[in-house]
Amino acid sequence: MAHHAPIKTLTGRALPHLFLLLFFHIALLFSPETLPAAENDLVLQDSTGKILARYPIPDRTCFGILFIHSVAKSPVEEWFCRQNSELFLEKTVYQDFGAGLPYRPEGGQRMRVKDGHIIIDGYHRPLPRFDVRVGRIAGHTLLLPEHNAQDGSRKEVRLDSLAKPGSAITFSLENPDSTRKEK
Hints:
By secondary structure, this protein is mainly β. The protein contains 2 helices and 11 strands, in the order H-E-E-E-E-E-E-E-E-E-E-E-H. A 7-stranded antiparallel β-sheet has the order 6-7-5-4-3-9-10, with no helix packed on it. A hairpin with an 8-residue loop joins strand 9 and strand 10. The C terminus is likely disordered.
């Protein structure tokens, strides 16, 4: 017959320590850093708060706004990314210098030239919401990534199809579940 070591039971001071250790492991599993980010929609509203459009934006997804610069008369792209539940301006891409366009990088940014375009990236500037005034000539266009597209294709939405030129469109993130509950 084989001899088995006696089973030790947790008693006294060891049991509370085990429960405390278990509690911290469970708390770590459900901390905001380890949970997946809630789904958010990019919401475009007019000045009265009316929702003009809503687009799902998964976490760490970027979208752009393309327009023709009024002085340089060349395309400019501004790129924004969603990180958790916030929007950040990340980079600007343009062909020619013009009034109002950045011309030198600031702290943490870098400027480079690629394929004839000037790129300034590294902004990572938080923007809880921002306004774009729909241009009469600028042709403001929202550039959205096509979901599940492996080739980098994108959907283009002209802002003047959503609002009259000269009016402002406010961009923000909203959790679609929270807005459904409010209604």
